[in-house]
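On clarity, I found the account of how folds are encoded harder to follow than it need be. An entry of this sort, consisting of the sequence and the corresponding backbone structure tokens, reads as follows:
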Amino acid sequence: MRITKQTLTRRWAVTTLLGGMIFAVLMASDLRLKALSGYGTADLQGFSSALQYRAAFLVWPSLYAVRAGFNWGLDYLLMPLYAAAFFYSGILAREAFAPRPGRLRRILTLLSAVPIAGAVLDAIENALELSMMLNGPTDAVARIAFTISNAKWMAIYVGLALLLGAVMARAQDRAKKRLQQA
């Protein structure tokens, strides 16, 4: 499938803006949950033992389960948005910095898929955390969730680097247009 650069840029802008807005709402909600209960859903990403999960889960079911569930649900909405935004970022960066076939172009193409894998890992991580909340945490599952969370964050860092590359590519395009108009 081929799309025009204008369509690609528009999709990149829309998914990036929507992803940013959803992320802001999610962070505000999670900060509120943490202020009320002492634990936010983002805190779970750093937990590697059942004891840590139990401490958070003791507080949530009685008073804050709906708020924690809302955060998890919103995170599932965020996943495809950041995966698409980072993927489009990678394609824009690739077209700007490696327009001809070669090693760099292949690398940027492969890196564009990494955030998609990160979103899949994010979904698995959230499912494991929800499973531990409903069925009780175990050290083995906690360690698996922790490992998956770390892998997800590596994919998100790649996506952020691609986003930076896309922003630089857009700035480069605008500078070229200004020079052509002058």
Notes: The chain has a mean pLDDT of 93. Residues 5-181 form one domain. DSSP finds four helices and no strands in the chain.
